[in-house]
Known about the structure:
Blueprint: H1 4-16, H2 21-34, E1 56-61, E2 67-72, H3 75-88, H4 101-104, H5 107-110, H6 113-129
Antiparallel strand pairs: 1-2
Amino acid sequence: MDDLESRLEGVLEELSLEGDWNDRYRLLVAWGDEAVPLPEEERTDADAVHGCSSPLWLRVENPGRLRVRAASTGVLPRALASLVCRLFDGLERLPAEFPPIADRLDLKRHLSPTRLHTFERMLERVKERGR
């Protein structure tokens, strides 16, 4: 079954194959570099995620299946946005309650408060627009 918990477990498994947090960070950055970015013409004010040090857009649509796309000029914001896309894009529905994603991925220990806040804002955007 393709659900958020399964996807989170898959991400955890991929990250656990990496050595330390620096290796995991490099993997997240690689995911961001490999992601197809939200096209320039779709980067609207309505999709901007404010509070990030780099421009960041996260578009969430739900035409029957979640469609989550993102773009950022910053390396880490792009990496975190690609993580959000990896977790949610293509899901049929969102769970009633999200698991503690940042805790489970150990992001609270390894991200600055600003980056963590940006990640949590992206999760809130998915919750708001994905239902």
